[in-house]
Amino acid sequence: MKKLLFLLLICSVSLVNAQGSVSLQFENFVGNEPVALKDKNYTNATGEQFSITLLQYYVSNLRLVRKDGSEYILPQDESYFLIRENKPETKTITLNNIPKGIYTGVKFVIGIDSVRSASDVSQRKGCLDVGGDGKDMYWAWNSGYIFVKIEGTSPQIDRKDPVFMYHIGLFGGIGDKKTLNNIRIADINFGEKALKIKSKGNAVIGIKTDVSKIMNGETNVSMAKNPVVMGGPYSAKITENYKTMFSFAGFKKELTAQPNTKVALGMN
Amino acid sequence: MENKVKLLFASALIFIISVSFRQADEPALFTIPSNFPKPTYDFSKNPLTKEGIELGKTLFYDAALSKDNSISCGSCHQQSAGFTQHGHALSHGVGDHFTKRNSMPLANLAWGNSFGWDGGVHDLDLFAVSPITNPVEMDESLANVLEKLRYSSNYPQLFEKAFGTDEINTERFLKALSQFMLTMVSANSRYDKYMRYEGVELSTAEIQGMEIFKEKCSSCHSGQLFTDFKLRNNGLKLARNDDTGRFEVTQTDEDKFKFKVPSLRNLTSTAPYMHDGRFTTLEEVLDHYASGVENSPTLDPILNQEGTLGIALTTDEKQKIITFLKTLDDDVFLNDNRFSESIGFSESKPAKKDIFAEVVDLKAVSPQTKATLQQSLAAYLKIKNALVKKNTDLVAKETESFLAVLQKIDKTKLTPSQKDFFDKINEKLAFDGDHIIEGKPFYNHQVDHFGDFSKSFYLMMASFKPNKTTLYYYYCLNSAQNWVSDKANESNSALLNNKCGSVQMKTILPKM
């Protein structure tokens, strides 16, 4: 019995050794300009000026794509992150226990998958806690998470309060409640480069998030005409726009210290 | 090893005791009435316990769930009104706001598959977040509610009893509320007893009514729950209907003006009727179905039979249906004290007379906050000394200094519950302080306000406990005169008059 335990121990140690960690560093841009909340002015494709006061989005269900096309799927419970522009520490997310190997890309859900969106309260921890970190990313009266939230002001909005608010969510509904399904997948390829995950050190993947694509794309959104978009049909157009807003921005220098590795359910 | 055996023995004993106890004395926490179908709620993910239900009930009746601590779930869901809001067509939230809908009756929620008039919430556990955060209902955030509970004197203990540890989190909060609401089963009407052959007979008119009901109403109000839980447009006049119901949730045109088919239990108590409470009597409701149904693209097909709108009903049939519907009134449910608000049960009842009951235990007070409050103590004692010397100008000046000290409280160093508490006390102190300052020429006016001022000051010190040494609160048994001091057995005849009766003393110990 003791021998068996010992063997098991050895096995698990070697398993741990066969794993590394990787971080994704999200950097928010408008076109090629880094996002600076409040202070900076930008222009959208319809020629309207705007500034951003709030920017946050979920990424979840991460998968790393191997050279041969197979995928390493992160354990579900450790695969929810809320990126907030005003909280720099949320913009780098660390994935642990990644099997050693060569990876050529990463995929994730922009928002929250439908299973988790319909799940029991016990499955809503960390950034999914509707009475905690996820409180401002949740529609209580129409149960569901807000996937992408951007707010700001634009002088072109002819209102007393020239504010725009795009709160995009909707996972398709549940039972006979059918809503839009605004879940989209980001599929990011590292191109020529490949990522080698080793047992030591922490590789860092730069991800550029070009939030101008929330407004510019197939549909060029006019803030003056559509200052507020939440659960309505127009949200699908914005979703179609932003589904390509994530791109690979090179590998960054490895973080010197191994970051805190213990991760609770639904992190960030 | 011996310990292990002991432990095993002890736990076996506890198990046996608890099982037999349950069997012997306690009714089951939830039973499925024999005439009901299987519940839809998954009890395995939230097993009911006596303590969990108790906690849920305390939360249900606690106004701390609302922003200004004025409204509880029970405010809009009153038991005697079948858990709706008495006489309100539209329910009434904080700050005298009205919602756009009638409070839905709460009963038999274990059988529901979506909640609210538009069915926007798919899980009972998640429902409470909606009224808590709605600006015209409780206008609060769940995170803030949890903070209030964490810093309350009673909830950590109640959570520990219910869930094993005193951790207060979203899941526990929501599941405790569900536990209580799930126990609210209405199945003891005369109709139910008739169906279960429990010795109740229905009258001929009631039976006739039941037959007409089955024929004309039960395609939507079906089964023993008297609803098919679907969302339908029942042809209410659109002129009054800017609430698009289900459409607001799904944004699909075919869902416009659709609302949940409600149960018909306890109708005598739940008036007015419809999602906006537009009908005050059942006669009006049946008149609507007989002759008031209005056509629209989403009108339920059942109410449009080849161009004939509504349900053909004679006056006699309407009366018989109503006679039958009244057999669904469940007095046992409406009076069951398992669901009733118990007096003194919850902590944050507004306007308590007893000042000592208003003291709360504010945990994790920052050193900065303590330091500022210690300064306010020094400033307070100066006001009191000036008052004893009857130097009214100095009293005013010292009061100004005192209020200036409180201005220095750094609110970013306060927890949400500390901030809530401080803001309230600070407002009262500022009110009485201003009177003391402006009442400068009148010593008696200053003394009057100093009483209330001191009471608030006591409440602040006793709750934040910034003091390094013991403080004393002196109060009159028969009047509102009182003061705080750093000395024991202080006699301050200057602050008293003959109405006082006897002076009592209470200590404020420093926090360990």
Describe the structure.
The complex is a heterodimer of chains A (about 270) and B (about 500). Chain A has four helices and 18 strands. By secondary structure, chain A is mainly β. The radius of gyration of chain A is 20 Å and the shape is globular. Chain A starts with a helix and ends in a 16-residue tail after the last strand. Mean pLDDT of chain A is about 90; it is low at about 5-15 and about 255-268. Chain B is mostly helical. Helix content of chain B is about 40%, strand content about 5%. Chain B has helices at about 1-25, 50-60, 75, 125, 130-135, 140-150, 155-165, 170-180, 190-195, 205-215, 245-250, 265-270, 280-290, 315-325, 330-335, 365-390, 390-405, 415-440, 445-465, and strands at about 230, 260, 305, 310, 470-475, 480-485, 505-510. Chain B has a three-stranded antiparallel β-sheet. In chain B, helix 10 packs across helix 14 and helix 18 (about 415-440) runs antiparallel to helix 19 (about 445-465). Chain B starts with a helix and ends with a strand. The model of chain B is unreliable at about 15-25 and about 345-350 (pLDDT under 50). The chains are: A mainly beta (about 270), B mainly alpha (about 500).
